Structure formats: C-alpha cells, structure tokens
Amino acid sequence: MHTNEAFFAAARSLIPGGVNSPVRAFGSVGGEPYFVARGEGAHVYDVEGHRYIDMVQSYGAVVVGHAHPFVAEAIAEAARLGTSFGAPTPGEVNLAAEIVSRVPGMDRVRLVNSGTEATMSALRLARGHTGRDRVVKFAGNYHGHADLLLAAGGSGMATLGLSGSAGVPASAVADTLVAPYGVVPELDETIACVIVEPVAANMGLVAPPEGFLAALAEECRRVGALLIFDEVITGFRVGPSGEAGRSGVTPDLVCLGKIIGGGLPIGAFGGRAEIMASLAPEGPVYQAGTLSGNPLATAAGLTVLKMLDDDAYSALEEAGRALAEGLGAAFAEAGITARVPRSGGLVGL
Questions:
Q1: CA pair distance 95, 299, nearest whole angstrom
Q2: β-bridge mates for residue 256, sequence order
Q3: Is 234 helix (H, G, I), strand (E, B) or coil?
Q4: 39 close to 45: Cβ distance less than 8 angstroms
Q5: What is the set of active-site residues?
Q6: Alpha-carbon distance 144 to 133, whole Å?
Q7: Do 87 and 43 fall into the same domain?
Q8: In this structure, is residue 44 part of a structural domain?
Q9: Where are the alpha helices (DSSP H) in 15-137?
Q10: In degrees, to the nearest 5, what angle opens at C-alpha 196 toward C-alphas 341 and 177?
Q11: Domain contains 325
Q12: Is residue 220 part of a domain?
C-alpha cells in the first residue's frame, strides 16, 4: 500500500470507521484522511510523500514540533532502560515535581494515561472527598468520553444532563447538571464539584467572560463544592502555569494531558494535599493504571516542560498573534466574514 486511499480502505475493513478517534475520519470537513508517514518540526508527510504544514500538532500535544531531537533522544534513552515496569520509577517523580512546581495550589499529582482518565478520576475523587454525587459541567465544554460527562444540556440555567451518546444510559448522567458557559450557576449542598474548561477550546475558542472564573470559584466555596479546571488543552500551553496561573484563580483540582507527555499518551490530575489524600492507597477513592507513569511518556514530558521557558512562551504568544492577525487579514481581503479568536498560543477560527 502506497496511497492514502489504499490505507483508508484497508483501515475501514479493520477499524470502525477506519480511524481510532472519530475526528480523524474527516467526516465534518469532507474528503478522505491523509495517512502520516513521518513528521518533522511544523510539517507532516503522508504516505504519498506530500508535505503539509501541520495545524493539528496532535491537538496541542506536540508543542515543540514533531521529532524534536531533544524529545526523541529522551524517549530513546528511556526505552533503552525498559519500556514499562509496573513499579515506581524516578521519571514519574521528576515529572510530578515539575508539574507541582508550576501549577498554583497543586500539592500532589497523580499520573494517568489520558485526559479522559484524568477528568474521570478527578470527578470520582471529588465525589468521594465531598460525599456528594451531583456534578456541574458547562454546555460546549468537552472533558473526554467518560459516561457521566457525555451529557448534553437543555436551555435552563443548570438543567439535568441528557445522554449525549448512544450507549450512555440516562442513569449515567442523572447526577450531571449542564449550565451555559460563562454564566455562574447557583449551587447547593448536593453538588460535589463543578468542572470547567477555563478557556473553552472545544467549541471553537471562547475565552471566559471577565470575572467568570473568580465568581465560579467563590460560588463553589460558598456551598463546599470543589472547582475542577480541565486544563488538558490549556495546561502549559497558554502560559507556564496554565490558565490557573494566568487567571489568578486557583481551583481545587486541575486535570492535565497532551503537553505533559511530549506526544506520548499521558494524563494527570492534582490539587491540594488534603483532597489528594482521599485517593488510594492513602484514602478510600480507588484509582489505578497498569501503564500510569510510563517511563517513556514521563521522559518526553519532562523534556518538553524543561524547554518551555519564558522565551518559548514569548515565541508561542508571538506566533499565535501573527497567525490570528494574518488569518483575519486574509479573510477580510477575501470579503469573508470570520472570527479569529486568540488566547495566548491558542488560535480559533
């Protein structure tokens, strides 16, 4: 097989829809997907040899570009020592220390294998720690594909969630409330937690209204609910401490992913010591993972975080600004009405 078409045909006979994540099938944009043979810096090359400027960058996970020599060498060195042990390794301690040192209010962190696993586990921890069941999320925010978070909202202030996917029973989202993004819902003492994308990056790119995050934190404190920032996208992308650091609003728990694995599968959730102490083996809230803290992922992630210094964030900011302004000018010249929102190095369309 040497063509994208041939690979996609073979993939469809072996993999549902021909892809291992639905967005890759190009269903919403038309055409057939290209199959990547390799990447280098800001470019990817498909199996037919075509070169593309990569605006995907593994959805933000490859922030320093494809096949960066520092990252590749870190992965290779880790692999030479062994790929998985089912036992603690120095790499996970080193990565945890780097994360905790950067994120405001985070005393401890637990490494997992994906962003979905991070949010799912954080919600379980919040419920276990508070002894409450109900969860609030915001319409348009995406927090992975755990059943209780695949809830679609109604039109009310904080309506009961309805299943947003086949296979998710009504009982799975019965305790999930959905509120409009940017509006602080009125909570009560039945709410375990509120989870939010501090910058909504899964419905285009929508920055939080002025004062929204601070008011949301205050409302959570009023009723004893935990505030969870889902920073799987914004974490270490919009700044060295994520949106928690940039906004000055300190949540109770933060979920991370993407960048902290340097392009390899990883996730993490962390927060205040007294909350994290409810997690097994210290506390009663169970969470585990065979490959959690994988030495290849921790080596790649630590290397990337060490590269993300003030100069790197200045470069990301400037690149984001130039891209947003350039796209805006191009659309205006073509007479096309378009919005190009930007938040640091994140650019929407």
A1: 8
A2: 268
A3: coil
A4: yes
A5: 142, 230, 258
A6: 19
A7: no
A8: yes
A9: 69-81, 90-102, 115-130
A10: 125
A11: no
A12: yes
